[in-house]
Amino acid sequence: MSSVARVTTITAFSETSFDDAVTVGIARAAATLRGVKGAWVKEQKVKVEGDHVIEWSVTLEVTFVLDD
Length: 68
Fold this sequence. Notes:
alpha+beta
């Protein structure tokens, strides 16, 4: 059996951690896309206010299988 996959780029944000940002991004992608199979964390960034990190963000390359 063969299949074809597609990759889409999303950015997700969290006020807690990179791990949470990844979880938020994957959950949102899975709510919209069928057949999500994995993701690659392409970029990580933080937003700083004063001397504190106030936001973590990740850019994900999400892979999903196309319907037949």
